[in-house]
Amino acid sequence: MDVSRLALFLCLAAPAFAQPEPKFEIATIKLAAPNAPRNVVVPSSPDRLSIPSMNLIWLIYTAYGEGMGTAYNVSGGPDWVNKTSFAIEAKAAKPSTQRELHLMLRALLEDRFALKLRTETRMGDQYALVLDHSDGKLGPNIEPWDGTCGGRPPASSDDDPVTPRCPSGYRPSGLVLEGATMFSVAELLSLPQSRALLGTIVHDATGLTGRYKMHLDFPFAPQRPADPGQPDFAPPSLFNAVREQWGVKLEKAKGALHVIVVESAIQPTEN
Fold first, then answer.
1. CA–CA separation, 235 and 233 (whole Å)
2. N or C end of the chain, less CB within 10 A?
3. Whole-prediction pTM
4. Is residue 144 over pLDDT 80?
């Protein structure tokens, strides 16, 4: 098991010993508009988090998944956690990294949803992200990061290897990363948009330590998080897209699978 993943999982599994999490200065939660973009974090300023429409299961994925360690499977909770979507607008007291914003989202969920979680882990099938070419050549849609975010300096100097330095994630056209390590690539491929196709998570086994600017042109359909009982298969198109555009490939492997179980939650009052 990757040491970074183990450390992050232990932090989650032992909250009594965790440091106090940062909190948003201001946050509003309302029922989402019916036509709002679903299950996306809208890029905004470095001190803001804007989520037009997410149910609680996806909010947990956002807070505990991308950039925070292995993208966990989330299960349990009352029926509404998969059915009722919320809009969240939140502002931090100062410009913050993506990881800090996600930590603040954790605290917000615990406060406003009275969210209580427990964690489990088991060994199981997953995919390893490995180089496709023995000479290390990468694909046409990946290049070394130039140190900027669209020509502008990164909002933060935080060089945490698990977090992209620029806004990254799923877009209508596919997957976009900037200032990201291959660890971050595996994390994003582990989130529900990809896992609904892959059936399991991905871990980085490329051996690459640099940061990259990259995009994956692939029509990810809006989907609910994958059923943990879903068979371990994926349409060849996603495998091919990763291999042809990035010069890396997905190989079957064994590893730790982490599960977050929602023990209890309540619907927040609007503000």
1. 7
2. C
3. 0.64
4. yes
Looking at residue 187, its pLDDT comes to 87
Numbers of helices and strands, H then E, in the chain: 6, 11
Sheet holding 142-144, edge to edge: 142-144, 212-217, 174-180, 169-171
Type of residue at 159: D
Residues 7-12: contacts with CB under 8 Å, at least 24 apart: 8/68, 8/69, 8/70, 8/162, 9/69, 9/70, 9/119, 9/121, 9/256, 9/258, 12/64, 12/69, 12/119, 12/260
**Structure tokens given for 251:** 């190989």
Could you read off the pLDDT of 192-222 as tens digits, one per residue?
A: 788 888 888 899 999 999 999 999 999 886 5
Between CA 120 and CA 259 the distance in angstroms is: 5
Q: What's the chain's Rg over C-alpha atoms?
A: 18
**Angle, vertex CA 212, rays to CA 208 and CA 214, nearest 5:** 120
* Per-residue tokens: 163: 């977090």
d(C-alpha 12, C-alpha 259), whole Å: 11
Collapsing DSSP to helix, strand or coil, 157 comes out as: coil
- Quote the DSSP letter at residue 17: G
Distance (Å) of CA 38 to CA 69, 85, 103: 23, 8, 21
CB atoms within 10 A of CB 43: 13
Half-sphere exposure of 266 (CA within 13 A, CB side): 6
- C-alpha to C-alpha distance for 250 and 186, rounded to whole angstroms: 10
Cβ(167)–Cβ(149) below 8 Å? yes
